[in-house]
């Protein structure tokens, strides 16, 4: 679906000049942008309007980005989150992915690169998948496409997973990967193949993102029939 009103982006960074520069680029690209310079400012709006995207700096003066990510995920598990950080270290990227971030951009970067990453992430999240950007999730009862996998019931239309009538909260990427495995049941899938299918062919990053995402799925859905194909990737067993 095509978004007809501006996407709302929440941008968090404690560097005033950089914050204003990035905001101006995003606004010129057609986004509605609200800026924050501390974790406390973010906490004050968590119960307000739901944005379409969070862009978070890891290093903040009071509450770090990792903690904010946890709080945001507890509030809105399906909103995409992009981390930005001056520390270009693999551990930052891995921790961010494990906690549920959808992209990572290391400082210094060109503002135009942030705009492009933002456009691509929003496209993958809302337009490519056809997800609604204005309505909340419907009741599970309205969906009739539930399929049974092991002890789980999964609805593609509702993007929902439940076990014994208890809903399991999956992030956007977690659900996308579960669905990809289901649609390719029995096939051995390479990590690079999974990256392209779930993150898009424009994703820039390590294939470790696949392993981290699988780890999170196994933690939330321990009975999901997924096996590791060592040195290759993963396969959902029949």
Walk me through the structure.
The structure is a single chain. With 238 residues, this protein is of the alpha/beta class. It contains eight helices and twelve strands. The strands form three sheets. It has a five-stranded parallel β-sheet with strand order 2-1-3-4-5, sandwiched between helices. The chain has a four-stranded antiparallel β-sheet with strand order 6-7-8-9, with no helix packed on it. It has a three-stranded antiparallel β-sheet with strand order 10-12-11. The radius of gyration is 18 Å and the shape is globular. The two termini are 33 Å apart.
Write a concise synopsis of the structure shown.
The chain is an alpha/beta fold and 238 residues long.
Poorly predicted ranges: 134-141
The averaged pLDDT comes out at 82
Structural class by helix and strand composition: alpha/beta
How many beta-strand elements?
A: 12
What does the overall shape look like?
A: globular
The main sheet comes to:
5 strands, parallel
Summary keywords:
five-stranded parallel beta sheet, 8 helices, 238 residues, alpha/beta, four-stranded antiparallel beta sheet, 38% helix
Give the arrangement of secondary structure elements.
Layout: E1 8-12, H1 16-28, E2 32-36, H2 39-43, E3 53-57, H3 65-75, E4 81-85, H4 90-99, E5 103-106, H5 111-127, E6 147-149, E7 152-155, E8 160-163, E9 166-167, H6 172-183, E10 188-190, H7 191-199, H8 208-220, E11 226-229, E12 233-236
Parallel strand pairs: 1-2, 1-3, 3-4, 4-5
Antiparallel strand pairs: 6-7, 7-8, 8-9, 10-12, 11-12
